[in-house]
Structures are given as structure tokens and as C-alpha cells.
Amino acid sequence: MSICFDLLSRTFSYRFPTKIVFGIGSISRLTEELKRFKFEKILMVSGPKVSRTEAYSVVRNFVESTGANLAEFTTTDAEPDVPLLNSLASIAREQRPEIVIGVGGGSSMDLSKLASALSVNGKDPISYFKGEPVPIKGPPIITIPTLAGTGSEVTPISVIVENGVKLALVDHNLFPSLALVDPSLSRGAGPEATASAGIDALCHAIESMMSVDSNPVSDALSTHAIELACSYLERAYCNGGDLEARAGISAASVLAGMAFQATGLCLPHGIAYTYAVKRSLPHGSSVSIAEPYVAIFNAPAIPGKISRIARAMGVDTYGLSASDIGLEVAFRILDITQTLSLPQTLEDLGIGEHEIEAMVDDLITNHRRFIIKNPRKPSRDELIDLYTDILEGI
Ligand SMILES: [Fe+2]
Q1: pLDDT (tens digit, 9 = 90+) per residue, 157-188?
Q2: Strands (E), 18-173
Q3: Nearest to 250 by CA among 294, 189, 309, 162
């Protein structure tokens, strides 16, 4: 029996063009790495908090040491929306940078990819989120995460919000040329941000493994990402100065990003999108609320995969049925989210039973792509039951 991927009947491809430079202190390699490119103008994209940190100053100093003509774009605190996208497009088209550097968390890095693409593709920015292709590759994108978890440093994906709905743009022309991951840059991140971003990496790895499009490459990446996240996330949360833990969760973020950019994500991310924006919840903690219950729901449909996920999490699966293993995976995730003081149920967010039908409709209407990737296709009634479980908890 195949343990995950059907080797006899399936074909897969895996594409990944980004160079990764990873390590504590590796930011000192930035000047040398920049010399690989021809440039005069650089645009740095970051968030309002990040732009005031020491990590940002360190990056900026290295960029300035090259003598480049430097422009900076700072986003707002809120989730990137259409007005922000339009002002980013105006600046990128006016500046015409030859390199774009995204410094910060997922939003900053997502927007740096858009700045690159929009600087050379002139249509209405939002149209690219609605099926318009991105025909021209923009200037090289360099991602420098200062918070570990989203995986945005290695994916060709950008997410923005339009009228309360999260839209994603996925295009090969958005792949970063270089991801420079120095875990010491995340040392200044507070426990809450560390927890919410870090749990996203664990969820990415689990969902990539569960995805109907997982393959031997992504499974290898996901398995190790799960091991790293389960070993280091709680440590990084409890002691932000623990550099080994910071490096462990940074590596988990990279590996999980490399996995899910190829496989897509499944139900937990789709479910999270139906309440995260309205409740202004950090992305990772909105996903981790749904993750345990989807693991239980999916387990009978993916006996081989759920065993591998469980073993990577340190669960002893000997003699257990797939359903029991799904439960053990759920308990392990709940243990971690409890340690991280993250919300565990929809009730914790103040969401009531009367809101479930509307969230199910939103999921089916606006986020079907996550249902398509899920290994067990839920009926509407099963989704209502699943939301009820997520509302009340185990
Ligand atoms: Fe995510």
C-alpha cells in the first residue's frame, strides 16, 4: 500500500526558483547578494511597526551601503486592501525600481511582490486578483522576514482584502529571486506575534500534506516543517531571545512555504477566511482554531497521511485507527495553541451559533478553492456540523 502518494498512477511536478540564504547573522550577506543584480534604484516595502525596528535599520544600512537610490513604501497597520494596493501601484509605476525588497511579516513581503509585478504590468491592480494574467516579470524581489511563519518569503502568492473578502494572486512571476532569512531579525517580535505567525507555519505544513495535490517533494518538506514547528514554536514563544528556537521556526516557515506553494492549502484556511477579517483576527490564530477539527474530519479519508502527520508531531500511532490518530493530532494542536494562549474555539471569539449558516455560505461561495484541495469533500450539512464543533470545542 502506498503510504501517501500513488506512485503507480500519478504524475507530479515541483517548481521552485527562489535562492534561499538562511542563518543567524546571514543579513550581513545582503550587500554581497545585491551585487548579483544590476540596479540603481531599490524600493523597500515594509509595515509601520517593522519600519521602526532595529531589524529594519540593519537592512536599510546594508542597502544604503551599496550606494543605491533608495525609495521606501510603508504599509498601514490594517490588512492590505484595495486603496493600499492602488497607492502601491502608483509608487511602483512612478519609481520603476530595479529591485524590490520586502522586509517584515507576510503582508510586507506580499506587497513587495505586487510592487514588482505592478511596476511593469499596467492594468487595474485589482484585476490581477480576478483572473487577469501577469504577463511580464517585474524586477527581482528579495524577501527578508522579520517574523517567522507565513512562508511568504518563498511563495509566489499575495493576499489582499476587498469588501471583507480575502483574494489571493498566485503567479510564477511573483516568485522572489532571493529569500534572505536571518532568524535573529525576528528576536524583537513579541510573544503574541510570534505565536500567531508561527502557528501558521504548522498549519501550512499539515494542510499541504492533507492536500489532494501533495507529492513526495512537498510531503518531505511538510514532514520536517511539522517536526520543527512542534519542537521550537513553544520555545520561541516562551523565550523570544532563544535563537535556536527562532531559527527552528524560521526554517519551519520556509519549508512549509516551499511545500504549500506547490500543493495549495485546504479547509482550515478557507474556514478561517470566513471569520478572520470581520473579527480583525491575526491570520495564524484564525487558522489554528479550525485546524484540529478539520484533522478529525479528514483523518478517515487519509489514513497514511494522518499517520505521518501524527508521527512528525511526536504522537505514538501504534495500534490506533485513522480516526483515533486524527483525534490525537487534534489534541496535540490544541496543546500547542493552549501553551501559546491562542483562541481555541469560535466561542472564544464571541461568535454565536446563529452565525454558522452565513459562514458556511461564505466558504462555499467565496473560498471554494480550499474545498477543492481538501481530501474529504464536505456536504453543506457536514460543514455546519464542522463549524458547530469548531464553535464549541472538544
Ligand atoms: Fe496561512
Answers
A1: 999 999 988 999 999 999 999 999 999 999 99
A2: 19-22, 41-46, 69-74, 99-104, 141-145, 157-162, 165-170
A3: 189
Q: 131 in a domain, yes or no?
A: yes
Q: How far apart are CA 137 and CA 117, in angstroms?
A: 6
Calpha distance 305→279 (Å, rounded) = 32
Which grid cell is 284?
Answer: 495564524
How remote is the CA of residue 269 from the centroid of ligand 1, in Å? 7
Range of the domain at 361: 191-392
pLDDT of residue 2: 61
Distance between Cα 59 and ligand 1 center (Å): 25
∠ CA 388-348-350, nearest 5°, is 80
Residues 103 and 201 in one domain: no
Tally the C-alpha atoms within 13 A of residue 369's C-alpha that lie toward its C-beta: 11
In a domain, 17, yes or no: no
| 293 Cα–ligand 1 center, Å | 17
pTM of the model: 0.96
Per the domain annotation, does 174 fall within a domain? Answer: yes
Question: How many angstroms separate the alpha carbon of residue 66 from the centre of ligand 1?
Answer: 34
| Tens-digit pLDDT profile for residues 83-99 | 999 999 999 999 999 99
Ligand 1 centroid from CA 1, angstroms: 32
Instruction: Say if 6 falls within a structural domain.
Output: no
Instruction: For residue 76, give the CATH number of its domain.
Output: 3.40.50.1970
- The mean pLDDT value of the chain amounts to 96
pLDDT at 4 over 80: no
Rounded to the nearest angstrom, the distance between the alpha carbon of 61 and the centre of ligand 1 is 31
* Ion ligand 1 nearby residues (CB, 5 A): 200
> In Å, what is the CA distance from 341 to each residue of 148, 194, 279, 291?
18, 11, 17, 16
Percent of the chain with pLDDT over 90: 93
Closest CA to 373 of 242, 229, 263: 263
Q: Residues 338, 205: one domain? A: yes
CA of 65 to the centre of ligand 1 (A): 34
Rg over CA atoms, the chain = 20
